[in-house]
Write a structure and sequence with these properties.
This protein has 2 helices and 5 strands. With 87 residues, the chain is of the alpha+beta class.
Length: 87
């Protein structure tokens, strides 16, 4: 389970991990009609190199704070990818 904050309407889509472990995803898509959520799921699938069907939004459909489940991904692979995006 990945807990993150989504910020729609950014210049580009990117993942940022703060020193305290807080995960923020800036999304280029606007926060309307589920476009930001779709963008988030597609971006995470590409980032973690898993099929889009393996990335499921569990909570936070209309809120900035979200819970995303990424199946078919080991905890080690998740930590390694997040470590590459630390600010």
């Amino acid at each position: 389970m990945l807990h993150l904050k989504a910020k729609p309407g950014a210049r580009r889509t990117e993942l940022l991990v703060a020193a305290d472990g807080t995960v923020t995803v800036r999304l280029q898509a606007p926060a309307q009609d589920g476009k930001a959520n779709d963008c988030l799921l597609a971006f995470l699938a590409k980032l973690f190199a898993v099929p889009k069907s393996s990335v499921v939004l569990m909570a936070g459909h209309t809120a900035p704070y979200k819970k995303v489940q990424v199946t078919a991904l080991t905890d080690e692979a998740l930590r390694t990818t997040l470590a590459k995006h630390q600010v």
